[in-house]
Amino acid sequence: MIIVGDEHMVNYPIKRKKQVKSTNYANLGMTLESDIESTNSYYLDMGIAVIHKKPTPIQVVNVSYPARNKAKITEAYYKTPSTTDFNGIYKGMYIDFDAKETNSKTSMPLKNVHPHQIDHLRNVDKQKGISFLIVHFKAYNEYYLLPAQVLFEYWDMQYDKEKGRKSIPYSTFVERAYLIPFGYQPRLDYLKAVNLLLASETSSDH
After folding, report:
1. Burial letters for 87-119: b for 16+ Cβ neighbours within 10 Å, e otherwise?
2. pLDDT of 53 over the 50 cut
3. Residue 133 and residue 112: Cα distance in Å, rounded?
4. Which of 59-63, 75-79, 94-98 is least confident?
5. Among positive and negative, which fits the CA dihedral 166, 170, 172, 177?
């Protein structure tokens, strides 16, 4: 209580609204590419693997200089079609893959993959490299490692008038791909799926 002159003023406590902190887990994975790059940084820091995103070859045509110490690219073109997004080395083996996303609940459209990417993955496969796709089904928030061999099978089959289709069914991912665990660190531990793929290939050779 505070006394001012002959008057009495009572200080009542001001009620403050409690702020409840909440975590939006839906935003943990900002983009598939950033999740993979975060995972690759973890692999590198822990000495597990050396895998990086490939730089995109660009031909710069025009550059403007709004200030003496600043340059701004105003016109540029891709030199050549990019192959796949990521490559590196893991356990002494070359690894090469691309990342795709789909909003469909039933399949991944083959149009999401480009012919030059298929050619590149075939060449990697011929040299005994580890090649695959990482596919994110947004509807289920599930991530799969799709082996290159399964991808080639559906890619070639799409030209068959009787059996061909323009997509890879979700059921194929459940049955023949490898589910990738999503977490904090690493964000998207796809090398666990790679290990399962390698174990499967080894057992099939015997």
Report:
1. bbebeeeebbbbbbebeeeebbebebbeeebbe
2. yes
3. 11
4. 75-79
5. positive
Enumerate the β-bridge partners of residue 133. Answer: 98, 146
> CA geometry: angle at 69 spanning 67 and 74, to 5°?
60
Check if the beta carbon of residue 147 is closer than 8 Å to that of residue 197: yes
Over range 155-160, report the average pLDDT: 90
Q: Report the length, in residues, of the chain.
A: 206
pLDDT of 167 strictly over 70: yes
CA separation for the pair 111, 104 (Å, rounded): 13
Q: CA 108, 114, 117, 121 torsion: positive or negative?
A: positive
Predicted TM-score (pTM) of this structure: 0.74
